[in-house]
Amino acid sequence: MLKSELRIIYKGKRAALTKEEQAQFDEAVLAHFKTLDFSDARYVHVYLPIPAKIEPDTSKIIEWLKSTYPKLQIVLSKSDFGALKMNNYVLDDQTQIEQNSWGIPEPLNGIEIDADKIDAVIIPLLVCDKQGNRLGYGKGFYDRFLDDCRKDVLKIGLCYFEPIDHISDVRSEDVSLSHCVTTEKIHVF
């Protein structure tokens, strides 16, 4: 299927989830995520979910990462819509978070960090295919950001739905996932 068709389908599937289903799915994703090993990581980039888009919640993932790996630094992004890129900031006790005009929670302050220092990126997506091709919202922010990261960066998607067979219109600039954590398991690509 084409990305445009898949976006309609999977936005609809997310919208159909009840709050209870979403909470159950978040717990299942978290349980699988906890089996990943971040002991060699220094910086992990984590998205903050956009409430209106019903994205998998990352708050408990952030809590778990901070408590399990106390030396690990959590990195958040701030969107630059003029340049169509993401700037990255270390999350600390002084970090203030506010929703931008698009409803995206972002840090207002913090220490900026270069993308090539990041060891793993937790990525939102609507769905992926069995080859690890990710379907996002179509603006290419994560593709450009991941292109700036090291080649060995872990690219870990979080998704409520299992991978589909094939996304038919994958482009050369689309960056695929290394892993996708779903409610059922962790898929490794």
The SS-based structural class is alpha/beta
- Structurally, the number of domains stands at 1
CATH superfamily: NagB/RpiA/CoA transferase-like
Q: How much is the radius of gyration in Å?
A: 16 Å
Q: What is the CATH class designation?
A: Alpha Beta
How would you describe what is shown here?
The protein is of the alpha/beta class and 189 residues long. The protein has a single domain (3-188), classed as 3-Layer(aba) Sandwich (Rossmann fold), CATH 3.40.50.10420. Helices cover 24% and strands 25% of the residues. The protein is built from four helices and twelve strands; from the N terminus they run H-H-E-H-E-E-E-E-E-E-E-E-H-E-E-E. It has an eight-stranded mixed sheet. It is globular and about 40 Å long. The model has no long low-confidence stretch (mean pLDDT 96).
Tell me the layout of helices and strands.
Layout: H1 3-15, H2 19-33, E1 43-46, H3 59-68, E2 73-80, E3 85-90, E4 97-99, E5 105-107, E6 111-113, E7 120-124, E8 127-128, E9 134-135, H4 141-148, E10 154-158, E11 179-181, E12 186-188
GO biological process, one term: folic acid-containing compound biosynthetic process
EC number: 6.3.3.2
Binding site for ATP: 3-7, 134-142
